[in-house]
Amino acid sequence: MEQAPGTRITMEKQLKSLGKASRAVTRVISVTSGKGGVGKTHTATNLAISLASLGCSVLVLDADLGLANVDVLLNLKPQGTLHDVLKGSLRLDDILLEGPGGISIIPAASGVEELHELRSEEKLLLLEEIERIAYRYDYLLIDTPAGIGSDVMYFNSAAAEVVCVINGEPTSLTDTYALIKVLSTTYGEKNFSVVVNNVADETEAAAAFRKLTRTVERFLKVKVRYLGWVPADGTVRECVMRQQAISADFPSSKASLSLAAIARKVAEQKPEGTVKGGMQFFFRQLLEMTSYGEEASC
Ligand SMILES: Nc1ncnc2c1ncn2[C@@H]1O[C@H](COP(=O)(O)OP(=O)(O)OP(=O)(O)O)[C@@H](O)[C@H]1O
Ligand SMILES: [Mg+2]
Questions:
Q1: Is residue 131 part of a domain?
Q2: Structural domain total, the chain
Q3: Closest ligand 1 atom, residue 232 Cα
Q4: How far is the CA of 221 from the centre of ligand 1 (A)?
Q5: Please, which pLDDT band fits residue 295 given cuts at 50, 70 and 90?
Q6: Per-residue pLDDT tens for 168-198?
Q7: Tens digit of each residue's pLDDT (9 = 90 or more) over 268-280
Q8: Residues contacting ligand 1 via CB (< 6 Å)
């Protein structure tokens, strides 16, 4: 059914203006997983710190909009919440946090609805605010929620590169297969990379990656790239408990060294082509998808 005329005009105007000031080289990478608790937030934040140590400017978006994660993990104290931004009382700049290693973080806020539940004006405001900030950075890393819910799909299909975090457990592999299936068949996503986290050794990591790719490449005809593995390391849990970032506070730990190697690989292997790269594409895509959902439900 037709959208309300007023809403459409705003939407079209916004679509035109979005991305105008964008820095074409900003790489937008989502860090995601089929199964929860496999290490997305740990990977996204420490990968960000490792990229920053290579001289890159990095912004992390905590896209689990209803459940704050990254700021709690890093013991940061948000000066305001996305609620304040949505109400218009604060700009996103006011709630932007500086994290370890000089990374920037857009914190989520407990209690904010998921993106698909926001009203269209709220979505526009939020996306416009994120975009205004994100173009200043070399990387925008998105720490998504787990699973195959709407917000996970929005962020993953709008990002140019999707990094799936898996561990060796069968449920992690089957849930990630399901995620890749929906993203590739429904959203046409073709660029997937994998980080195997929290495993004993390289052999276990390689076996988990092989199991996943055998099924994915056979049934979905999608290529999956291996980014590397992160060992199960007691220092990770210690850091979580102390709200520290392992890559900043224990850079010589086994997990930090692995994450540093993954960061180098990410920095070296830019995705082919520019069709889906850059902020402009990301925000247009995100906005079009979220508004499509709204039109369809009218
Ligand atoms: N390499 C590792 N070594 C040891 N423990 C780890 C490792 N990676 C993650 N963990 C443990 O797993 C927990 C969950 O990690 P994290 O919060 O990053 O998962 P997540 O995928 O973001 O979870 P959610 O789906 O709830 O957002 C951490 O608190 C930590 O204790
Ligand atoms: Mg998380």
A1: no
A2: 1
A3: 3
A4: 30
A5: very low
A6: 899 999 999 999 999 999 888 888 999 999 9
A7: 987 664 445 556 5
A8: 33, 36-42, 69, 146, 197-198, 230, 232-233, 236-237, 240, 255
Q: Tell me whether residue 7 is in a domain.
A: no
28: Cβ contacts below 8 Å, ≥ 6 apart: 134, 139, 140, 142, 158, 159, 160, 161, 277, 278, 279, 282
Which ligand has its closest atom nearest to the C-alpha of 195? 1
Please tell me the distance between residue 143's alpha carbon and the centre of ligand 2 in angstroms: 7
Q: How far apart are CA 102 and CA 83, in angstroms?
A: 25
Domain containing residue 261: 25-113+140-276
Flag whether 284 is in a domain. Answer: no
- Do residues 180 and 216 make contact, with C-beta atoms less than 8 angstroms apart? yes
Which residue's CA is the closest to the ligand 1 atom numbered 8?
39
Choosing from 165, 236, 246, 257 the residue with most ligand 1 atoms within 8 A of its CB, the one to mutate for a pocket test is 236
Say yes or no to pLDDT of 167 above 60.
yes
Q: Is 36 left (phi over 0), alpha (psi -120 to 50) or beta?
A: beta
- Measured in angstroms, how far is the CA atom of residue 34 from the centroid of ligand 2? 12
205 Cβ contact partners less than 8 Å away, ≥ 6 residues apart: 168, 196, 199, 229
